[in-house]
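Good morning C.,

I know you're traveling, so I'll keep this short. The sequence:
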Amino acid sequence: MKRFASPRANRAAGAALVLAVVALVALLTESKVSRQFGIVDGVPIEVFAPEGSAPNDAGGAQSPREAVVVVHGFSGSRQLMYGFGFALARSGYVVALLDFAGHGASLDRLPGEFDEARYQKLAANLTVAIEYLQRDWGFARDRIAILGHSMGASVVTRYAVEHPDVPATVALSLGEFGARLPAQADRPRNLLILVGAAEFSGFINGSTNGLRAAYPAGVAGQTYGDFARGSARRLVTIPAVEHITILFSPQTYPEIAQWLGAVFGRPPHAPAVDGRMGWVALLYLAAAIGFCPLARLLLPRAQSSPAAAQRRPVSGLMALLIALAVGILTPLVMTRVPIDWMPLTVGNYAGAFFLVAGAGIWAGIALRAVFMRRRDAQPARLLIQIQLPPRRLILAAVALAAYALVTFGLTAHLTWTSFALVGERLWMALVLFVFMLVYFWADETLIWRPSARARLGVYALSKVTLLASLVVGILWFGGPFFLLILLPVMLVLFVWHGLYAHCLHRLTGRPWVAATLNAAVFAWMIAATFPVVS
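The tokens, ready to paste straight into the viewer:
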């Protein structure tokens, strides 16, 4: 059996294994809740309940007496809301988490416009979950609270306004619908609003308007009204969190548990929190540490191909000029690119953006070759190494891409976001993979350097330019605003998988190896995350 390349690599592999085992054991022993998943009238629903609870025993001496339906926001999934399932189930509630139409495991499509048809579809999904808890778990309707985030917050608040038998509503990151709430304090009944201090102003203003619709002089941190009359309302600003991290803040869970306890007349108790994400981060750290030792084990000893041996790197100044030109032109070109043929809202724009940027980089590399008058250079050396690489290298590249997908995607799917390619998502992932491969192969070719250290600076330059170009496309050329919310996630992936690419560059010197890995991860993530629309 081949040994790792060095004692240092052996130590890294051992550390990764230890960290992974510790994190897995902690995650498996921490849950202490019962879970079951099923499709109810076409709606994927996962139930979290205190250990020992079972359907149709609500109201028993030891059984939960109240339940909560939890819904996600745009491009979310039930997995994104798992923290509420764990925390509230440990606090004694039965919690039903669902995937809205077009999201997660749902095979239904989401109406494409933010209009009445979309709300009616989502409200129907919410009704299915509430009636499921009534029918299969035996809960009275006035003992089922509802909780939603972002788009889901707007859905649950409007739903509760229209259904006065909903005893309590929790809205996280409430948007513009906050300004449309009626002036009656009991519509909806007992409304708790939470918003992150670092969120975009639209969510902060919408959440504030939600409080002041009933209490015009209301301020954050104060509780107004009366729980018994259903007129209680409270706005809480969670410090140091934005639109996504509010879902994982340890300050979010106690506020919700205390609010629901007051609504349902429960005695005060120490609220449970969700402690999984620290262990999830440890799993990701283990995956990152273990990547290079695995790559050294799988990859043949680095040998430059004939084309690679003669390749002259793009100079730093030329790389900067190409990156800037592509960054400026891509948002302009995107205004003319048709994307509606792919029914993956936001994801279709993101995929096309990467494709256009990649095509622009290839064009820049080709023009550079013309301007350099490299008469003796073959096209294959300038753009793509057409000669077939060794079979072992191809298999190793596929295996490493699978490692990246499993360690990132499977962990995510089991803990914080959907990563399954259900229904139509599979063919869209294949198309997106081609789009992503065009970009990442071009980018890896642009930043290729004999020196791995020199490569890092050009890599950072290319990614900063790409993200800046995306922001310009969103703010000035009509790109989907939701992508701004996801910029921190993209930045993390660029850094994390950029380290993988850096390792592969040092081991192989071939741009396509790292490009294949990054294209697979980004394509899968986009295809699995964004809503499928009609």
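Safe travels,
E.
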